[in-house]
Specification:
four-stranded mixed β-sheet; 40% helix; flat
Length: 433
Amino acid sequence: MYSRLSPSTIVGILIAVCIIAPLAWLLHEPGLFGKVWIVVKYNPAFWIVGLLAIGFGLYRKLTHPNEFAWIELAVQIPASLLAVLAAFSFFYYTTTNMSDSEIWNGKVTLAEYLEAWTQEVEHETCAAQDVNGNCTATQTVKQLIYHPPEWHIHTSNNEDVSTSKAVYRNYVGHFGGERKEILFHMGQVSVGDGNRFYVSYPGPEVKQIPSAQEHRFVNYLKASQSINLRRGSTNAYEKFLLPYPQIYEGTFGPIEVNRVLAAGVDVPVEWRAEVDRTLDNALTSLGKAKQVNLLVYVVGTSDRAFFHALEEHWIFGKKNDVIVVLGVKSFPKLDWVEVMAWTDVEEFKITLRNRITEQGDIANATALAATIVDQVSLAPQKGGYKRKPMAELEYLVADITLPWWASMLIVLLSGILSWGISWALINNEVTSE
């Protein structure tokens, strides 16, 4: 017998997708939803709308006592509350400027190539219909599904990065020792393919490939209204303000970032490359151990006030950043040094600043980078770096507010979803032919 989904079932499926999709999107990044929840639960409107959703469920039970069973009420209320939670979470994350990303650093541990293969699947379709459009006969149809080839990079931070055939071949040439794994796929009809080829990091430091990847996080500081009210100190330094560096594609895939930025001053290419290479290599282990990202910003002004303009422009950097800002009006003479970092270990920033200042100039790229790495590596009690947890900034959630239109849309969507859930439950019959 062939069954058709009723309209109520279809509506229920659509509502489930509307609820689950935004929550799954937030849960995809570890710890992200928990941070958003802290902001959501602080808003009294969330609890008011949640109570209204519960009240609406009870109202529908009272007005439809025969069609709306008690067990369905037990579905209505949790589903409505989830709808409210999904709506508040999604709009808080997308409209309040709290969405941010930080760079995680490590090294490539493995590159793999998954061969293309073809799969055969069977499913039933309607072969004949009556005059009313109801299915009177079914047939089994075989379908071929092509699975295209894939190339991936895996890092020491358990990151899986999609890449290309050319990049994979670069890893084969660099790491060496390519291996093959014969795989079995359910329903595979193609012959001699669908296998896995891979190369692993062989161990010697000379063979390691640093990796950098962006990860989303909730930035209370960036979303705080009190921070936005403090804007205005960047106007005099616009020509020196550069955008925050982004991950870009290199020889070994989209895992590279420029760690040295220069604005308003000529800095030798070789110097920049040496600092970048030294910091990259150090972060293959230090990045994960210290949860840190290292950047050097060289600016062609002797005015130390530029540092505060950069703080505003980059909103104090990311939560795992250590940004060494060097005032260099004429390379390599050093005019001033400041350090931007989210840390309660003030000794770290002061000591690192003083150590670089004592060098007098920055002609020796290796010495500068080594000083930064050494100070970051120390234990916090010895003046080393310790990242400030975002939890210590939770007091800022009181400053995070939704735009008025987002609040109105949340109420509207929550109401529509609650009504839709109850309608689907009241009319939840499946027709059969």
